[in-house]
């Protein structure tokens, strides 16, 4: 079975206009254009983390992987849009104590 990260095709990139708002200053739009190629790499990294530790909340994954400033959990929605991960059932988060969704690998692949 071919794994998700064995694919030879170029990953779908996040377009810069989705990273900066219409009313943002020009500097934000320039920064968005520079970071857009990196966004896909970070979403794939988040998907690999979910594959290694499925069923955790975003805050729990941030803690497990020592991700500062929510750098991992911020990428999960984008990874879900690209079908790299999927949202699971909500449960009480062991980090924040609030109700939070769990994250799971999308499809059958080995991360």
Describe the model.
It is a single chain. With 111 residues, the protein is an alpha+beta fold. The chain is built from three helices and two strands. Strand 1 and strand 2 form a beta hairpin. Strands 1-2 form a two-stranded antiparallel ribbon.
Structural class: alpha+beta
CATH topology-level fold name of the domain at 40-111: Arc Repressor Mutant, subunit A
The chain-level mean pLDDT equals 79
| C-alpha termini separation | 12 Å
Q: Which regions are unreliable across 5 or more consecutive residues at pLDDT < 50?
A: 1-11
CATH class of the domain at 40-111 reads Mainly Alpha
Q: Keywords, please?
A:
111 residues; alpha+beta; Arc Repressor Mutant, subunit A; two-stranded antiparallel ribbon; 14% strand; disordered N terminus
Briefly say what this structure is.
This protein has helices at residues 26-52, 58-64, 76-81, and strands spanning 85-92, 99-105. The chain is α+β, with helices and mostly antiparallel strands and 111 residues long.
Helices and strands, with pairings:
Blueprint (H helix, E strand, L loop, with lengths): L25 H27 L5 H7 L11 H6 L3 E8 L6 E7 L6
Antiparallel strand pairs: 1-2
């Amino acid at each position: 079975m071919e794994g998700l990260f064995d694919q030879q095709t170029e990953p779908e990139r996040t377009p810069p206009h989705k990273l900066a708002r219409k009313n943002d200053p020009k500097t934000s739009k320039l920064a968005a254009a520079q970071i857009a190629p990196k966004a896909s790499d970070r979403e794939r990294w988040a998907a690999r983390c979910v594959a290694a530790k499925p069923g955790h909340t975003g805050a729990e994954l941030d803690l497990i992987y020592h991700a500062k400033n929510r750098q991992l959990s911020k990428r999960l929605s984008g990874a879900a849009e690209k079908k790299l991960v999927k949202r699971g059932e909500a449960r009480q988060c062991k980090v924040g104590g609030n109700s939070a969704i769990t994250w799971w690998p999308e499809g059958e692949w080995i991360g």
